[in-house]
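Reply to dn_fold:

You asked what the input looked like. This is it:
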Amino acid sequence: MTSSPPRSQYPRPDRDRSASWLTLNGEWDFDSEDGPATIVVPFAWETAASGLRRTWLERGTYRRRVSVPAAWGSSRVVLCFGAVHHRARVLLDGVEVGVHVGGYESFELDVSDVLAPGDEAELTVEVEAPADKRAIPHGKQRSIPRDDYDGVSFTPTSGIWQPVWLEARGRTHLASVALRGDSLTGFDVSGVLVGDAPAGTWVTVRLAGETAGVELVSDEGGRVSGRLEVPDPHLWSPAHPHLYTVELTVDGDPVDRVLVTGGLRRVEIQGEKLLLNGERLYVRGVLDQGYWPGSGLTAPTDEALVADLDLARDLGYNLVRKHLKLEEPRWLHQADRMGMLVWAEPPAPSRWSPDAAQAFEAQLAPMVERDGTHPSIVVWGLYNEEWGLDWDIPGSPERAAAAAHAYDVMHALDSTRPIVENSGWSHVRSDLVDWHYYDEDPQAWADNLAAMAEGSLEHFEVKLGPDFVVDKSLYGSPEFPRSGVPILNSEYGAGFTSLERAWSMRWQTQELRRHDRFAGYVYTELADVEHEMAGVVDADRRPKDLGGLDPALVNATSVLVVDLVPARAGADIPVPDSQLALDVHVSHHGSSPLAGRVRGAWSTPGGRPDVERAFVVESEQLKAEPFVLSGAVRLRVPAPGDVPAARLHLWLVDDADVVHARTFVDAAPIEEPNRRGARP
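and this is what came back:
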């Protein structure tokens, strides 16, 4: 019995034409300098999942027979590619039907003139994937010669690496369609018709299952636009991710019908605050690079693809920053369905040139056209850490102009979401001031965050290489406003072992939550990738030893903020031999005030929190207003007794004894690091 091809689910549930489609995933013939072979699509030829596992191959040719179902009648036949890195030349029976350049964007080809329903042909895809990727958008793929950031780059992704499929469409059909629900009362609809009669064709737009709708007619260029009001509108939010399905029907024989999902939601900036549907939004994000062992940038299964979103939610995050990768529409559709916010960003080149900047900007229109309807996307990122700008925005007017120009291009494409022109530092034109800051020293971390929050510190050290540490500024020009723009951290984390990283996550996130000015944070990162071991889980998504830490408590709506600077992992403070005085605050991001008391109790080292244990101390009543750090309550905690180490559990309960926040403080001997082996 023949098994199903891999990744055989319909690739575009957000723009659904699954009534008549055919997957082309599975085994293809493959030719390269190594000779003939078989390759499994849609996995890059570097991966084990492809069956090749061949790195630094720069050219390959895919072939397979395709048969179009006769039942598709007189429909047009469209050949769709999720992504092919980097240049793809597509032929049917030796006739070129299209060429596409760009390794991350989706593209499609109307092949009706050479492949009609009932026909069979040989499909050939000739791919070029240069080893020298410096001038092309490639994100975290390793290059030869090496990039400046080779130390944080991974195995390349070449060839077909997202699904390939055929679908039937009307003789006149919608090549693109967008829904914008920012009005919160209905959808602004736009699209472009192609085919037999793109001009003057009627398009019916209605909510799926409804009979009433609006009738639109295309202009001479095939463009169509209008407005669909939604009766009794339900807004989309993380708490209530209500999705609408809009049916668009294009008049013709056969008709073209597509089901598009969208949500009614609005992202706004009000001074230094982010708002979602008029309510304060605090970003609790995690960076996700979207790599899997054995299959690289392509998820091995559909279940694995969407499981990462469940994992992020279970860890307490409300946003995923999909890092330097245009992720598959199925992933974005699942984010829409579950209410996970998304920071989306394309890959960048790694060396500056006018051509490289043009190649970077060429991705933006396809990105917005494919993904702009997803309500989950609330931030568009562009460049990252001046990659492709030679780490030199402040010292190079032309590089600064390239970052600003990318912002302008993106703003013209979509002004409904905040745009970050260069994530990390050196901002010249941005809707958010974000920064990437890694620091192993808890005192320096706390001090620098406090100074950033008050506006007295603009510079911080960044380790760009093993022997290359520089000062980077939040701002790339004196003209950028120093206030009035939301400010947030979009990369942080510290520690070598999983225990150290869990310790740093707990205390560093606490300090971010201490300062009300900040609009959020993004932790690095969700899962390990190859040699990079910074994930909350390992590369196979297995849990790590976090020393009893539950990240969901660190990233909760309400958290406790303790006034102390910890010494080191496993020994936040020495074991007290007398009463311990601790000041504790509450950072609360709910919609209404929270009142309660902080309780404390000792346990053995690494002991689990147990709210039923008899607490040894309880604070006075405190009240936390939304998005304002509460005043401190002082706990006077009895010493744990004559023990070598202990864990102090702290938790916040309301008058009904419901627990709203938890944290802990580890007490153990604090030893200076052993340096006896050092020699002069």
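The mean pLDDT is 96.
Hope that clears it up.
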